[in-house]
Amino acid sequence: MAIWAILIILVVIVFWLIQMYNNLVNLRNRVRNGFSQIDVQLTRRYDLIPNLIEAVKGYMGHERGTLEAVINARNSAVAGLKQAAADPADPKAIKALAAAENTLGGTLGRLFALTESYPDLKANQNMMQFQEELASTENKVAFARQAFNDAVMSYNNACQNFPSNVVANNFGFKLAEFLEIGEERKRDVPKVSFGQA
User: Fold this and answer.
1) Are 66 and 60 in contact (CB under 8 A)?
2) pLDDT tens digits, 25-46
3) Contacts (Cβ under 8 Å, ≥6 apart) of 40
4) pLDDT at 187
5) d(Cα 99, Cα 109) in Å, to the nearest integer?
6) Cα–Cα distance for residue pair 138/135, rounded to 1 Å
7) How far is residue 87's CA from residue 84's CA, in Å, rounded to a whole number?
8) What is the pLDDT of residues 95-143, one digit of tens each?
9) Which of 9, 26, 94, 100 pairs with 66 at a CA distance of 20 to 30 A?
């Protein structure tokens, strides 16, 4: 009888460990899925930027430094996105992406501030359309980032709470990083008025 009791207890423990392991895998996959939504929206944003630059280039030819800074920041952000997409649970990749996004946001802000000096550009339909598309995409990125950060929190909680932390530590589950993009004012889409001054 004692042997059966021990076997039943061991079977229960094994099934319990399997359940905790599977839960950690599911939560890690939610983090990856959450990041894939960010990937889609950021890729859309990055694809809009060259078209925006083309629309602005004819009006702002002598602002070449600003235009090049936007292009360089966009390229850095694309590289950061690719690195983070390879492993969304990699804290270094997520931090690098956040830094690249902050730089891109700053350069786009400077570009939009400069457009205020060009009345013809402010009235340009293409410019207004790109501005609207970027603003819409920024909102989608914010929602996707929130969903990703929620998935990261659930995953990290499972990796840190006892007893699942024992399973996480023994099977190489590492904490994921939240995607934080600068201060609140940096996260806002630059406000550009295309109305008359």
Assistant:
1) yes
2) 999 999 999 999 999 999 999 9
3) 144
4) 44
5) 15
6) 5
7) 5
8) 999 999 999 999 998 888 888 877 777 777 777 888 889 889 989 999 9
9) 94
- Alpha carbon distances (Å) from 152 to 90, 115, 149, 159, 167: 11, 38, 5, 10, 18
The per-residue pLDDT for 190 is 53
Q: Is 112 left (phi over 0), alpha (psi -120 to 50) or beta?
A: alpha
What would the 3-class secondary structure string for the chain be?
A: CHHHHHHHHHHHHHHHHHHHHHHHHHHHHHHHHHHHHHHHHHHHHHHHHHHHHHHHHCCCHHHHHHHHHHHHHHHHHHHHHHHHHHCCCCHHHHHHHHHHHHHHHHHHHHHHHHHCCCHHHHCCHHHHHHHHHHHHHHHHHHHHHHHHHHHHHHHHHHHHCCCHHHHHHHCCCCCCCCCCCCCHHHHCCCCCCCCCC
**Residue 188's pLDDT band (cuts 50, 70, 90):** low
Exposure string for 133-158, b = 16+ CB within 10 A, e = fewer:
bbeebbebbbebbebbbebbebbbeb
